[in-house]
């Protein structure tokens, strides 16, 4: 009765259509810019991760990581139709007890580019990265943010060389000139400074002051094959790591290495997957030992590196590979070692049980390292997706909750690490019941 009277009053006074119009306008604003009204004040308070020798430290306790890769977060946050995937993925990670996600903080040239050209940025995409960081904070997830790609995907060093060539300042058309061309080095430094000093529009915090960011990664999988000695890449790492630290002393920094041993390493023959690995211009120990590099990174892809080994031989290599690098962290580097990518492709010969065996092996090496307070500080599955992302799958991706056995292994690892060094405040709500002893 009241509703009917109110309708007559609105129509009779000529207010009905203006109100409907205003409501429609508000609905449009919400659908277009709804994230501006997201309440980011409810985020969990995070502290900066520190390093003490071979261990990460959070709030005075050793911190061993069960993490994952979702490189696509910024790209999908830039489109309002796919933006909900970011919250879905981060919430799912938190529910599994995962603590750190590694993702791209770059997209150079091309579709949804963050950096359109040297020093020119797309504010819409920067706001997408703001959203990723703010959403991670709300879910108690820390981020490793990678700053450029050695590969062509999302621009990478190839795009930087192309820009310099188009502007007539390039020394060479070689992709590896990214590492030694003065103009390109200036491009990259300008990019790094812009990202590190960016003020998040949702939280009001500059990236360099935000503890949601676990660490910066200089470059994903650097290789400089035109200089197998490794000198060119080493000079670049020294210069860029020093530059990052001159702007941001609060965050940890890593290079982004795959972990190969260079031509002068005593491990080049016994530990590398094959002979080619020593000639890629990188060296795990030499590149990681710099004082401006806080921890080392390693990738584990036995089925990608070997073409003629069976699965059992690949498992054996993976265990040996990981233990070799943990030994380096303990004895030579005196720093933590993160296995920031590991995976098994779901190619034609793939069997789901094999992936679980490989996953279990990697997680067990990390668990034993945590129990013994060694330098093997964590592992990151490559890669996690959400539903309807088939075209982003590179043969390594999974939707973890669609594979119960894999999901269980990952969550059990979170519980096992928590049992050794305790639950983080961000994990308590998700794991206190799951990890409780069952009668």
Give a quick set of tags describing it.
single chain; 439 residues; alpha/beta; three-stranded antiparallel sheet; disordered N terminus; mannan endo-1,4-beta-mannosidase activity; GH; transmembrane helix; MAN-like; secreted
Give an overview in words.
The structure is a single chain. 41% of the residues lie in helices and 13% in strands. It contains 14 helices and 13 strands. The strands form 3 sheets. The protein has an 8-stranded parallel β-sheet. Strands 1-2-3 form a 3-stranded antiparallel β-sheet, with no helix packed on it. The longest helix is centred in the C-terminal third of the chain and has 23 residues, at 311-333. The radius of gyration is 24 Å and the shape is globular. It starts with a helix and ends in an 8-residue tail after the last helix. Belongs to the glycosyl hydrolase 5 (cellulase A) family. The chain crosses the membrane at residues 15-38. This is mannan endo-1,4-beta-mannosidase.
């Amino acid at each position: 009765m009241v509703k009917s009277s109110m309708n007559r009053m609105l129509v009779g006074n000529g207010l009905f259509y203006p109100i409907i119009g205003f409501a429609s306008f508000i609905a449009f604003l919400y659908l277009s810019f709804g994230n501006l009204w997201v309440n980011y004040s409810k985020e969990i308070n995070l502290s900066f991760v520190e390093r003490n020798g071979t261990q990460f430290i959070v709030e005075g306790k050793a911190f061993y990581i069960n993490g994952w890769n979702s490189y696509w977060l910024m790209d999908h946050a830039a489109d309002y139709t796919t933006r909900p995937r970011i919250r879905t993925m981060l919430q799912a990670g938190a529910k599994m007890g995962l603590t750190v996600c590694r993702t791209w903080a770059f997209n150079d040239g091309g579709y949804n580019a963050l950096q359109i050209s040297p020093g020119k940025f797309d504010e819409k995409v920067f706001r997408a990265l703001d959203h990723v960081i703010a959403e991670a904070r709300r879910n108690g997830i820390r981020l490793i943010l990678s700053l450029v790609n050695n590969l062509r995907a999302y621009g990478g060093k190839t795009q930087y060389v192309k820009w310099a060539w188009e502007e007539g300042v390039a020394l060479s058309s070689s992709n590896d000139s990214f590492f030694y061309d003065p103009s390109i080095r200036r491009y990259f430094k300008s990019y790094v400074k812009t990202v590190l000093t960016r003020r998040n529009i949702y939280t009001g915090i500059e990236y360099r002051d935000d503890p949601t960011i676990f660490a910066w990664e200089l470059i994903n999988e650097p290789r400089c094959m035109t200089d197998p000695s490794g000198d060119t890449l080493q000079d670049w790492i020294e210069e860029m790591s020093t530059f990052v630290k001159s702007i941001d002393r609060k965050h940890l920094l890593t290079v982004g290495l795959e972990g190969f041993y260079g031509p002068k390493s005593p491990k080049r023959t016994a530990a590398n997957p094959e002979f080619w690995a020593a000639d890629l211009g990188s060296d795990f120990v030499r590149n990681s030992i710099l004082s401006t590099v806080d921890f080392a990174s390693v990738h584990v892809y036995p089925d990608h590196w070997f073409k003629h080994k069976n699965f059992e031989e690949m498992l054996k290599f993976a265990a040996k590979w990981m233990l070799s690098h943990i030994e380096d962290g303990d004895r030579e580097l005196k720093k933590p070692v993160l296995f920031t990518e590991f995976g098994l492709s779901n190619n034609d010969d793939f069997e789901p049980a094999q992936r679980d065996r490989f996953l279990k092996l990697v997680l067990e090496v990390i668990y034993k390292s945590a129990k013994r307070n060694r330098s093997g500080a964590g592992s990151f599955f490559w890669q996690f997706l959400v539903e309807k992302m088939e075209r982003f799958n590179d043969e390594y991706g999974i939707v973890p909750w669609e594979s119960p056995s894999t999901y269980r292994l990952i969550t059990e690892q979170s519980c096992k690490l928590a049992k050794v060094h305790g639950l983080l405040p961000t994990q308590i709500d998700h794991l206190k019941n799951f990890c409780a002893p069952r009668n």
